[in-house]
Amino acid sequence: MRIDIDMGTAAAPGGTAAPVMLDLEELLATRLLVQGNSGSGKSHLLRRLLEQSAPHVQQVVIDPEGDFVTLAERFGHVVVDGDRSAADLECIAGRVRQHRVSAVLSLDTLDAEAQMRAAALFLNALFEADRAYWFPALVVVDEAQLFAPAVSGDVAEDVRKLSLGAMTNLMCRGRKRGLAGVIATQRLAKLAKNVAAEATNFLMGRTFLDIDMARAADLLGLERRQAEMFRELQRGHFVALGPALARRPLPVRVGTVETAPRAGTPSLMPLPDQPAAEARDLILAPVPLEIRAPVERRAPTPATPSMKEILEQIVRDRPAVTAVDEDVEALPQPEREAAYRIIVHDILQETDAHFRPETLLYQDFCVRCRIKRVGGAPLPLTEFKLLINAGRAGLDPERAGHPDWLRAIDIAREIPDDLQAVFLIVAAAAMTGAPCPSDAAIAALCGQHAPGRARSRLRHLEKSDRLVARSGLSGSRAIVVPDLGWETGWNDPAADAAARSPGLERFAAE
């Protein structure tokens, strides 16, 4: 069936304004290209098209500046934050096609390369949807020259090829899958030719560069001398041509819209009326101490004890390790385990305790057990290693006795000793819902100074399916513990760069 939507008005013979109608069904088969310099009204035109067609067809908007998220309040579009993992973006795009829900992919929080990767993943997932979900949909791509550049730029070549391939699929092969591409660009010269060439409907706005005016004139079938008209177009005025719009070039003034972008066009306003001396004092006033940029200081490296010092310590503490206090009655098993957890927690609260050798920690542990009058034979060294690895996760003694945490410790028994601490640190963050700890924080909790060792151990745990890492395009990370069904929160890479002190308190508020 034929559905016409009102795009605005055109100057008709006699000076009357006649409405310009766009055949929506024809547009789905023939695609649309919008071109105009910055400030010519491209986004306003796209918003008019989206608002008028929203009740009739599904819409997917690739929005690099976050301008179209306001459609959600008025027309029910689902806003999808582009800062997600590749698997998340592909899954969400598949659901969008399956359930015929209009969506806006907002990419304003990402840099240029991440925007291209996210858009490519999303568009490819729309394109590769199952045949049963090939429903008609408008796919609107604002600032298309970012995603289909004519030449290589500053982004990685593999990312450029991925994004260009997705845009080419949309414009060249999307019609049979129900995808109608609507692309807008500031300059035709910056847009890949094989992407622009597939559009048969055009709306050309104000343009100043000769090369862009020449290409616009060629697309509209105008003579080169008529290309000068593009310099004289006002904001919001376009020249339309195509089977869905007009058979001959037609000047169009785009109509009004119901929604507005989050950041509108700036307008002039009076400057504040204040003396120059006051303005200078206001700007150059001393910066308050609490908001000054923090000075990054590397934590001092604890001195490594010599072999002689280690042996002397062992000799001094040997009676406390080997002796069994027969006069002290051993505590019941549950109370003894609780006492062990408290002692380990107290030991690890001391300065640089995480960096002390396990032999010294074991000596200290045995001495404290005698002081606390725990009683019984000393804890075997193998059991102590597991206990100290669990303590490195930073949970308080009460929470460390929770049945869920005891399940995690049982799983850790099946993991090699050198991987236990890393597994339990991540598991503790996942159990408490804390953000995923950084490699540097994990290394510090394990008594290491090199984040590379933490990364290596995380990779070993991933290969054995003990952990599954999920990465966001901005560098954020979350880790799943499949055996327990837990997942950490997404971390903040910028904040993690400064987190180097031991203790889970940096990642979760108890």
UniProtKB/TrEMBL annotation:
The keyword Membrane does not apply. One of its GO terms (molecular function) is ATP binding. InterPro entries: AAA+_ATPase (IPR003593), ATPase_Atu1862_pred (IPR014588), HerA-like (IPR008571), HerA_central (IPR002789), P-loop_NTPase (IPR027417). It comes from the Bacteria. It comes from Lichenifustis flavocetrariae. This is ATP-binding protein. Residues 28-209 form the AAA+ ATPase domain. Keywords: ATP-binding, Nucleotide-binding.
